[in-house]
Design a protein that fits this description.
Elements: H1 15-25, H2 34-39, H3 55-60, H4 77-89, E1 91-95, H5 102-115, E2 120-124, H6 133-136, E3 145-147, H7 154-170, H8 173-206, E4 212-214, E5 217-219, H9 221-230, H10 232-235, H11 252-264, H12 267-273, H13 286-301, H14 320-334, H15 342-353, H16 355-385, E6 387-389, H17 395-410, H18 417-422, H19 424-432, E7 433-435, H20 443-469, H21 485-490, H22 493-516, H23 521-526, H24 536-577, H25 587-598, H26 601-617, H27 619-632, H28 636-643, H29 658-675, H30 679-712, H31 715-731, H32 739-755, E8 759-761, H33 764-770, E9 778-784, H34 794-798, E10 800-807, H35 821-831, H36 847-852, E11 858-859, E12 862-863, H37 868-878, E13 884-885, E14 898-902, H38 914-928, E15 938-942, H39 947-959, H40 962-967, E16 971-973, H41 975-978, E17 983-989, H42 1007-1019, E18 1023-1031, H43 1044-1068, H44 1072-1083, E19 1087-1094, E20 1097-1105, E21 1108-1115, H45 1125-1137, E22 1142-1146, H46 1147-1150, H47 1154-1167, H48 1186-1206, H49 1211-1223
Helix pairs in contact: 1-33, 5-30, 7-31, 8-30, 9-29, 11-27, 13-24, 13-26, 14-22, 14-24, 15-16, 15-22, 16-20, 16-22, 17-20, 24-25, 25-26, 27-28, 31-32, 37-42, 38-39, 38-48, 39-49
Length: about 1250
């Protein structure tokens, strides 16, 4: 016989060996990961920051959008927070209640980490949790992940190496970086646009709840819409628009006065008076008109044309007053030169001509100044020393001798006899001069004598110059000079200077002003007769200015006055001509214009008087215009209607009550303004941007991940990858002669190729055997189902710089089977001294619970596995109702979702309740026969031990075809075996039976270290569509209040009652708004469901047809809180992520005009091809599933009857044997979920 043989030998590789390696290397490590030292409590500081996402931030990113976090799969705010905490704290704890997408979250996180170029290890206690992880990673990144869950991992490893080597060979890192940069910019812009669109949608929806305020009164938009609809007939007579929120601009009495002007001033009169009549203030009064006309006639008779040729064209525009003032100044400045003669006139002429003539006078002034200055300076020494020179001494010759003597003495010489003997001329000078009556001796004496000689000479020169230049022109003669002539001459310096500068300082500015006035001075001066004497130019100037110019200027002044008057008349004509074509309509304008043109003062007076009469009549019109202007500021449309006398606004009386009509217009305009912002357009834009953002993010993650992979791969790794790929290509089918040699060479490259793989997925035991704790490190380690892993998982924490611990302490944790408490305590006392919370480190401590002591968890809340009635039990039992069920149960045909099935069984054999087991087996097989359960998978959980599960398994294997058993993935076990697994339909066997002497011992949530609570949580959350609770107890008499078994049975039994109460509550709060929308949709032939449940959420209305659905939300009713808008938008974003499509109806639009408001709904229904299928739902004959349930129960009864007839149920012996085999560790047949024997990656056993 070929019986199986098991070889047992000690393991050389495993967790123990890995831990020993870590202990060996620990003393040599300077820096340990923060996550590791914080978990074991050997650091006194916490690196974790608690500034988590606020509620508003969670609502702003319902799908996990962020500038820096790249989630390439559908995400939520919790996944975003996980990535942020990992970046911030290097460690994050994730609580993943059942069915909340832990695997999806890890796959999403892997994509983000790969885009950062990080290496990742994902591990767990059992391979079941990791089985589908690689497939959950986005497809372009799967080649970067190796999943090692079975012994033969070569195929997976080879495919990964082949894919990486091929991508490395074909990719260009520069191109990837450029594409990633472009995608990053595109993604940031999409994020900005998406947030902007969501904010617009929030504001638009919020407007349905913000009150409309008119004159201090507040109205909700729906109240406003109802008011508009109810008062449209009586109060809609005020035309729009109107300033929002403004009060009525005119009082009732003012409005009555305004409408009365319709009768006081006819429309023809108003049109005549509205033709821009001239303003009397801008016209000449009749007196001024006549005065100016008389003055013009007088001026016209004068000689205004005299010498007109001397003035430039257009000079008449210059100021007449300025010209008169200039004439006075000309006469004043020129009059003095009328009597000027001699030297004054000569100096003036020289100053005008300049050149040598002026220079002669400048030289004279300079000589006078020099002589005067020298005399003043020499006077001091002359007075001090009293120098004298003999009359016989030739003064003209001694100047040089005196200078020589002074120079000699200044150099230290002495005037002794010998010196004077040699310088006889010196001696003669000394003898001819005295200082204070004595002969000079010192330098000062001779210098004083020299000054006297120089002064004498300067006076002589100056006097001669004066006589030649001044005396001959009438200046003082020699007899008038005195002993000090320079003093006399000095008095003439200023008069001479003024004469020289007269042209420049006095005449030139006057001449410029004349030219500026338009006078042609040069031509005028040229007409003056030319003289032949020395000063003829001055005389010509005097003649021109004093004799000829006054008459010319006087004539120009008269000419300018005449022109100004004529221009005033012309200006008046132009002003009256501004009416243009209106002249034919306004008679007063014709009269005035004609009078001005004819210069008729009498006609002008009469026309002017008519204009004043017109303005007097215009008073009523002005009041009308004033009131209209006041009205127009806030109600321009209303003002226009009155001004144009349109319809009832041209009548004498008010059309209605102005206060009510004003309120109607204000409400209407505000709602019309709100309606212009289309919710549909904004929502469509959000949907489009969200899809585009998701696509761009996925592309960006791919580009970055492969770019980082190229950078990370060393030359040695590239060589190994390419070499392995080439060798495997040559091996081909492996039938060649060289195949073994080539395969051997390829195997040598495997270890190097392994180091090039960034993501590894494997159980903890595989990690221990396949990685070197001394060398292998990862940037991030992710531990899944951490609540099942004991503290040996610290080995994996040690391997990562960052760690993500994913689990749930509300599910089954390690049980420490076989461990002795005293031995554990002894080991704690011996090895864990000084370690905080050391007594926790027993066999029951999970790595999740250990992490819980340090890190605050991020809880995944979105539940996708179970329909809401199933997960409700676990939600209330373990999660305080925080879980949000999101699965839509409308398409689930297996109903009711929870079934409580009681049997009569009063005894059990050990932990086996045979009657209950038969019931479970028969119910399962009966269900599998129903068409509603086609392709459904089944599971059975025993709530007391595993023996009951084994017994049920044996029954199923006996009575169910083997192929169907496998196809249905039937699994029977206890809660721990099902953790991390799920089935479509689950059967829970309670096993316990009544004991007959009162209630059973209490089994509450806290019992057995919360283990009962954890087992029930796991068991009750495995079913996707339906859960059957099969029990033999009467929960009201056999179980005490608070017993967890009683709680589960009542939940399964009374779920339909809970649903009925919930539905009644929803019907109570059904709004009038929703009711009217429902009526219109049903009238149009559509199949509509109100308050459609989607897990924890409700949708106001859902229209179904042709297998498609449209969600309709009604905004604006009072029970839709404005403060909850953010949460409601996040809810919609989540449901849209699940595939729902929404359209919204505004109450402010619907109650104002229902037909227009609901048209977008019909448009969207047509666009989605949802046809009107009638209001009766198809296949609605058994909505509660009671007929289906009863049919299964009847069929199960038949099956049990057949079984009893065909067998004596000897299966119990088989089960007993299988139970003993399990207890003694003997092998039993493998079912789905069992792990096979383990080997290392290299194939070593």
């Amino acid at each position: 016989a070929r019986d199986p043989v098991i070889f047992v030998h000690p393991r050389t590789l495993g967790i123990g060996t890995a831990l020993e390696s870590i202990l060996e290397i620990l003393p040599q490590i300077d820096h340990l990961p923060y996550s590791l030292i914080s978990l074991v409590g050997i650091t006194g500081t916490s690196n974790e920051r608690q500034d988590t996402l606020t509620a508003q931030q969670m609502l702003d990113a319902p799908n996990g959008e962020d500038e820096h976090i790249l989630l390439s799969k559908p995400a939520n705010a919790e996944q975003l927070e996980i990535a942020r905490r990992l970046e911030r704290n290097n460690a994050v704890l994730v609580q993943g209640p059942p069915g909340t997408g832990k695997t999806h979250t890890i796959a999403n996180l892997i994509g983000h980490l790969l885009a950062q170029g990080k290496s990742v290890l994902v591990t767990s206690e059992k391979p079941k949790a990791l089985r589908v992880l690689r497939e959950k990673v986005v497809e372009p990144l799967q080649p970067l992940c190796v999943s090692i869950l079975e012994d033969d991992s070569r195929k997976n490893m080879e495919s990964t190496i082949d894919a990486i080597s091929e991508r490395l060979a074909s990719s260009n890192i520069d191109r990837l970086d450029r594409e990633a940069a472009a995608l990053t910019g595109q993604r940031l812009e999409l994020l900005r646009q998406l947030r902007e669109a969501r904010q617009k949608l929030l504001e638009a929806r919020g407007s349905e709840y913000r009150p409309v305020i008119v004159a201090g009164e507040s109205y909700s938009p729906t109240e406003a819409a109802r008011y508009i609809a109810q008062h449209r007939t009586t109060d809609s007579w005020i035309p729009g628009p109107a300033t929002p929120g403004a009060t009525l601009p005119l009082s009732r009495s003012e409005l009555i006065e305004l409408y009365n002007t319709n009768a006081k001033v006819t429309i023809k009169e108003e049109r005549e008076m509205g033709l821009s009549l001239p303003d009397p203030e801008k016209l000449l009064s009749p007196l001024d008109f006549e005065r100016m006309l008389t003055e013009q006639v007088q001026l016209n008779n004068a000689t205004i044309s005299y010498r007109h040729d001397l003035w430039l064209p257009g000079s008449y525009r210059q100021s007449t007053e300025a010209l008169q003032e200039l004439q006075k100044r000309l006469v004043q400045e020129v009059e003095p030169i009328r009597e000027l003669t001699g030297w004054r006139l000569a100096a003036i002429i020289a100053g005008r001509e300049g050149g040598p003539r002026r220079q002669a006078w400048e030289d004279l002034l300079q000589e006078i100044q020099q002589a005067y200055t020298f005399a003043t300076q020499a006077q001091l020494r002359i007075l001090r020393y009293d120098p004298a020179i003999s009359p016989t001494c030739p003064i003209d010759h001694i100047d040089k001798i005196l200078d020589e003597i002074a120079g000699y003495l200044s150099q230290g010489g002495k005037l002794n006899g010998f010196k004077l003997l040699t310088k006889r001329e010196w001696k003669a000078v000394i003898e001819s001069t005295t200082i204070k009556g004595r002969q000079p001796e010192t330098v000062e004496h001779f210098e004083t004598l020299r000054d006297l000689v120089q002064l004498h000479m300067m006076r002589g020169d100056l006097v001669g110059r004066w006589q030649r230049q001044m005396t001959v022109l009438g200046g003082p003669g020699i007899n008038e000079f005195g002993p000090e002539p320079e003093r006399t001459f000095y008095q003439y310096v200023d008069p001479l200077r003024r004469c020289l500068d007269w042209f420049a300082n006095t005449w030139a500015p006057l001449e410029r002003e004349l030219r500026q006035q338009g006078f042609q001075w040069d031509a005028f001066l040229a007409e003056m007769p030319v003289g032949h004497n020395e000063h003829s130019e001055g005389l010509r100037l005097r003649m021109a200015v004093v004799e000829k110019l006054p008459a010319v200027i006087a004539a120009e002044r008269q000419r300018r006055a005449y022109t100004r008057i004529n221009e005033r008349f012309l200006e008046l004509e132009r002003y009256l001509d501004q009416g243009g074509s209106n002249l034919t309509k306004a008679g007063v304008l014709l009269l005035l214009r004609d009078a001005v043109k004819r210069r008729d003062p009498h006609a002008y007076r009469a026309a002017y008087s008519s204009l004043l009469d017109f303005y007097a009549k215009h008073e009523s019109l002005q009041r009308r215009r004033a009131l209209l202007a006041k009205l127009e500021k806030v109600a321009p449309g209303w003002a226009t209607a009155i001004r144009e006398r349109i319809g009832k606004h041209g009548e004498r009386d008010l059309p209605g009550e102005p206060e009510k009509a004003w309120l109607w217009r204000q409400l209407y305009d505000e709602l019309d303004r709100l309606a212009r912002l289309s919710l549909e357009d904004i929502q469509d834009r959000i949907n489009r941007l969200s899809k585009e953002l998701f696509t761009v993010t996925a592309d960006l993650v791919e580009k970055r991940a492969w770019a980082q992979q190229i950078r990370r791969t060393s030359l040695e790794q590239r060589r190994a990858l390419q070499g392995w790929r080439e060798l495997m290509r040559k091996v081909g089918k492996g039938t060649g002669k060289r195949a073994p040699r080539l395969l051997a060479e390829a195997r040598k490259l495997i270890p190097i190729c392994q180091t090039a793989v960034p993501v590894w997925i494997m159980p903890l035991s595989y990690v221990a055997r396949n990685f070197d704790m001394k060398r292998n490190r990862f940037d991030v380690v992710i531990i899944d189902e951490a609540s099942q892993a004991d503290i040996t998982a610290l080995m994996a924490v040690y391997m990562g710089d960052q760690v993500v611990v994913v689990g749930d302490d509300e599910q089954v944790s390690p049980t420490a089977v076989g461990q002795r408490v005293d031995e554990i305590d002894h080991l704690i006392d011996e090895h864990l001294r000084g370690i905080p919370l050391a007594n926790m480190y027993d066999g029951k401590l999970s790595i999740y619970s250990l992490a819980r002591t340090t890190f605050e968890p991020v809880c995944l809340l979105e539940h996708f596995r179970c329909v809401s009635p199933i997960i409700q039990f676990s939600n209330e039992l373990s999660y305080q109702g925080k879980i949000k069920p999101l699965r839509d149960d409308s398409e689930v045909r297996r109903r009711p979702f929870t079934v409580a099935y009681q049997i009569k069984s009063l005894s059990r054999s050990g932990k086996v309740n045979k009657e209950e087991a038969l019931a479970v087996a028969s119910l399962l097989i009966a269900a599998s026969e129903q068409p509603e359960y086609k392709d459904a998978t089944f599971g059975v959980i025993s709530m007391v031990g595993s023996e009951q599960a084994l017994y049920i398994e044996s029954l199923l294997r006996k009575y169910m075809p083997a192929t169907e058993y496998v196809q249905r993935r039937v699994l029977c076990g206890d809660p721990a075996q099902f953790q991390g697994d799920e089935r479509d339909v689950m059967f829970l066997s309670m096993v316990d039976v009544p004991e007959g002497d009162g209630p059973l011992p209490l089994r509450n949530e806290e019992g057995y270290e919360y283990m009962f609570k954890k087992r029930f949580n796991v068991a009750a959350s495995r079913a996707r569509d339906q859960i059957w609770v099969v029990y033999s107890l009467d929960p009201s008499t056999d179980l005490k209040p608070g017993d967890i078994r009683r709680r589960l049975i009542l939940h399964a039994r009374d779920q339909h009652l809970h649903n009925q109460v919930l539905k009644e509550q929803e019907q109570k709060i059904e709004s009038e708004f929703e009711r009217q929308v429902l009526q219109r949709l049903v009238k149009a032939g559509y199949r509509v469901t109100t308050q459609w449940p989607v897990g924890a959420y409700r949708i106001d209305l859902v229209v179904e047809g042709a297998g498609r659905r449209l969600a309709i939300e009604c905004d604006g009713e009072r029970w839709h809180s404005a403060e909850k808008l953010g949460e409601d938008m996040a809810r919609q974003a989540i449901l849209e992520r699940l595939g729902w499509r929404f359209v919204r109806i505004r109450g402010s639009q619907f109650f104002r005009n229902p037909d227009i408001a609901i048209e977008p709904v019909f448009t969207r229904l047509r666009a989605l091809d949802i046809p009107p299928e009638g209001s009766i739902a198809q296949n609605s004959g058994d909505p509660s599933g009671q007929e289906l349930k009863n049919g299964i129960i009847r069929r199960a009864d038949e099956l049990r009857g057949q079984w009893k007839e065909s067998t004596d149920h000897s299966v119990s012996d088989v089960v007993s044997t299988r139970s003993q085999n399990r207890d003694t560790g003997r092998v039993r047949p493998v079912t789905s979920g069992n792990a096979s024997s383990r080997t290392s990656l290299s194939g070593t056993k």
